[in-house]
């Protein structure tokens, strides 16, 4: 017997917002039940309509805001109310920084049980708009609209948001959303393109069209002309990453951007790179200052990717060992070392979520260690750090909760002291928090 969905109240309700969630929603309480309200800020009294009710919580859409917070600002994007690309445009940039830093402090104290540490001033910021050089755009032919939509997903939905531009994307792409949609609408496979991968370098811009069926010759000619007209490298990806095929131009060079210490990082359109190259450069400088590498030191860079930190570190350290689970990234890291004339950096392909016994690189001594894991954190390698016994550890994180969890082990179980922590403004107007922590033995 199917369970009936609980009927939502027809009448709006009112709630006072007490705090924000990690994803930027306001939280208030009615009769002890948590109410999550999109776009609401602490201190505001919000009239809202229920959109979901569960036993322990409910969700709502704001209808009216009484006593608006001084942190509130008009969102400049006309699609902000429904596009899921951003969640904090209604918050002043200064307040966004404060909110994210407060979240980091709260996670370190609540999850990590770490009370005493110095904060980096939240000064590591850059462009607020047009900063995104990497993105995955949804594509959908909507029959009842009679046209193709290109954009991010709608909030709380799998539908593609109807947008005319994107202010956070680099203008080379963000201002061309209508042209992209109109172009795809003229293809025979307009309903067989679910996504476009965007990758922008200092030297060139690439679009990867994921296709569910092969384009015919007319569509290929149109794709080639679109690339020529707007100066995009055009790729097709009919299946997995190995199926990537460049359609225009013939044999293009890799994308690249410049890093500190006179390093050029080369990458392919599907390689993982930071979305915000301006902040990435500042982040690398902060890591270099925190690790303070010396010519006689050996440094281990875990989750090294293409060598984003490995190669600038190698300019200052005696030896740097980069470890990464993706073989394509490891190959690219070796290529980057060679093209930058760096011979004191080695790269190893190892799944860092699995047992590390038996790998040659684990038997070496490391003076200092850098960690830059995915959102799931570095739990599997944390216990190994006590074996290597480095005098300094720097941890770059995109998830404050797993950062706090991992730091708790290093601090409470392995004798490390959290010297300093702080956020970096990698993702303005979104709830994503990039942070860094520096520990000493």
- Backbone CA Rg: 24 Å
Give the overall form.
Answer: globular
Amino- and carboxy-terminal Cα gap? 59 Å
Question: How much of the sequence is in beta strands?
Answer: 25-35%
What would you call the structural class? alpha/beta
Strand order of the largest sheet: 6-20-21-19-18-15-16-17
Main beta-sheet strand count, sense and barrel state = 8 strands, mixed
Helix content: 10-25%
CATH superfamily of the largest domain: Vaccinia Virus protein VP39
What's the domain count? 3
Query: Which class of the largest domain in CATH terms?
Result: Alpha Beta
CATH topology of the largest domain: Rossmann fold
Number of helices: 9
Tell me the CATH architecture of the largest domain: 3-Layer(aba) Sandwich
Mean pLDDT: 95
Poorly predicted regions: none
Strand-and-helix sequence, N→C?
Answer: EEEEEHEEEHHEEHEEEEHEHEHEEHEHEE
Question: Overview of this structure, please?
Answer:
With 441 residues, the protein is an alpha/beta fold. The chain folds into three domains: 13-66, Nucleic acid-binding proteins (OB fold (Dihydrolipoamide Acetyltransferase, E2P)); 99-127 and 274-440, Rossmann fold (3-Layer(aba) Sandwich), CATH 3.40.50.150; 134-200 and 205-252, OB fold (Dihydrolipoamide Acetyltransferase, E2P), CATH 2.40.50. It is 23% helix and 28% strand. The chain contains nine helices and 21 strands. It has helices spanning 93-110, 171-174, 177-185, 217-230, 277-291, 310-314, 327-339, 379-388, 400-413; strands at residues 13-20, 26-30, 33-37, 45-53, 57-66, 118-119, 134-142, 147-151, 195-200, 205-210, 233-237, 245-248, 255-259, 263-267, 298-302, 319-324, 345-349, 368-371, 392-397, 417-424, 434-440. The strands form four sheets. It has an eight-stranded mixed beta sheet, with helices on both faces. Strands 8-7-9-10-11-12 form a six-stranded mixed beta sheet. The chain has a five-stranded mixed beta barrel with strand order 1-2-3-5-4. A hairpin with a 7-residue loop joins strand 11 (233-237) and strand 12 (245-248). Helix 1 runs parallel beside helix 9 (400-413) and helix 8 (379-388) runs parallel beside helix 9 (400-413). The radius of gyration is 24 Å and the shape is globular. The protein starts with 12 loop residues before the first strand and ends with a strand.
């Amino acid at each position: 017997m199917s369970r009936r969905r609980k009927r939502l109240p027809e009448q709006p309700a009112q709630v006072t917002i007490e705090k924000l969630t990690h994803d930027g929603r306001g939280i208030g309480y009615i009769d002890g039940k948590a109410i999550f309200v999109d776009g609401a800020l602490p201190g505001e009294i919000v009239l809202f309509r229920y959109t979901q009710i569960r036993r322990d919580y409910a969700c709502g859409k704001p209808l009216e805001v009484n006593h608006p917070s001084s942190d509130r600002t008009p969102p400049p994007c006309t699609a902000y109310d429904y596009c899921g690309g951003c969640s904090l445009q209604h918050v002043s940039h200064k307040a966004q920084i404060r909110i994210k830093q407060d979240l980091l402090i709260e996670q370190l104290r609540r999850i990590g049980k770490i009370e005493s540490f110095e904060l980096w001033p939240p000064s590591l910021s850059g462009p607020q708009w047009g900063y995104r050089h990497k993105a995955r755009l949804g594509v959908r032919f909507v029959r009842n609209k009679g046209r193709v939509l290109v954009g991010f997903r709608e909030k709380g939905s799998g539908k593609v948001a109807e947008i005319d531009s994107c202010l956070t994307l680099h203008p080379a792409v963000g201002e061309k959303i209508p042209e992209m949609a109109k172009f795809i609408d003229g293809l025979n496979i307009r309903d067989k393109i679910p996504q476009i991968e965007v990758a922008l370098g200092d030297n060139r811009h690439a679009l990867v069209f994921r296709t569910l069926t092969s384009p015919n010759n007319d569509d290929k000619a149109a794709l080639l002309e679109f690339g020529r007209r707007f100066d995009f490298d055009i790729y097709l990806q009919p299946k997995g990453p190995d199926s990537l095929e460049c359609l225009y131009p013939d044999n293009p060079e890799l994308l690249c951007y410049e890093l500190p210490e006179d390093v050029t990082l080369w990458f392919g359109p599907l390689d993982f790179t930071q979305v915000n190259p301006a902040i990435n450069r500042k982040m690398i400088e902060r890591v270099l200052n925190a690790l303070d590498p010396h010519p006689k030191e050996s440094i281990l860079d875990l989750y090294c990717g293409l060598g984003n930190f490995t190669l600038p570190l190698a300019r200052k350290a005696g030896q740097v060992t980069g470890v990464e689970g993706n073989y394509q990234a490891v190959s690219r890291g070796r290529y980057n070392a060679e093209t930058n004339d760096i011979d004191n950096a080695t790269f190893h392909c190892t799944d860092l979520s699995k047992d590390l016994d038996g790998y040659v690189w684990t038997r070496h001594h490391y003076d200092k260690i850098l960690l830059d894991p995915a959102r799931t954190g570095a739990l599997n390698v944390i216990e190994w750090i006590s074996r290597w016994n480095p005098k300094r550890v720097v941890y770059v994180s995109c998830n404050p909760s797993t950062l706090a969890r991992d730091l708790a082990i290093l601090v409470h179980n392995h004798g490390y002291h959290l010297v300093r922590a702080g956020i970096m403004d990698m993702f303005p107007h979104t709830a994503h928090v990039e942070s860094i922590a520096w520990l000493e033995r």
